[in-house]
Amino acid sequence: MNTNLIKTIATISSLEISNERKERLQPLISYIKEKRTTKEEIRINFICTHNSRRSHLGQIWMQTLANHFQIDNLKTYSGGTEATALALPIADTLKNQGFEVNIIGENENPIYAIKYDAISHPIIGFSKRYDDSFNPNANFAAVMTCSQADEGCPFVAGTDKRIAITYEDPKISDNTDKQTQTYLERSNQIASEMYFVLSQLN
Question: Which of 82, 130, 170, 177 is the most exposed, fewest CB within 10 Å of its CB?
Fold first, then answer.
């Protein structure tokens, strides 16, 4: 990993997480532990309404931190109840935190290659429905990252477990002087919680 991303991980690893949030994260910890016990591949699909912000942050940070903790059989995905586009401030935030972010397909819903180191396959980021063919259709945990998707999507086909870990939408800051800081705070929050989850496995 490059120097900036290593620094970011050091920062998020020390962020405080409330006991209430730690309790909210326990079902995800238990799911991953169970899969590790049975030596099954761990698949986690982060789901939000538009698959444009929070679900991508969950996917990207969990996959990156799995590499950091050397958990080789964990694969992450993301989807929405509808497809839109990955929000540009998300791409900018990830770049600022040390990721290499490149557009590899330009259209109304751009496709991004997001790299956390020089040798691993990039994470492919684009907006899609949670049941898109790019995502698993069985044997995965569905992590609902926004309350709208959790309430509006009562059934997720193929999932082993449905887990609600919701976050406030950074979109509320779009086109304001707080946009950069708000997106960074949300990325750091999600990253710190995914770090906590994976740190509990050993």
Answer: 177
Q: Report the alpha-carbon distance of residue 95 to residue 117 in Å, rounded.
A: 13
Nearest to 65 by CA among 165, 185, 194, 163: 194
Mean pLDDT confidence for 194-201: 97
| pLDDT at position 2 | 85
**Number of Cβ within a 10 Å radius of residue 32:** 21
Which sign does the torsion angle of CA 81, 31, 19, 63 carry? negative
Strand arrangement, sheet containing 111-115: 100-105, 111-115, 123-125
DSSP state of 172: G
The model carries a pTM of 0.96
Decide: 78 and 54 in contact? Cβ < 8 Å: no
* HSE (side-chain half, CA atoms, 13 Å) at 36: 15
- CA-CA distances (angstroms) from residue 84 to 29, 49, 51, 71, 96? 30, 9, 7, 31, 23
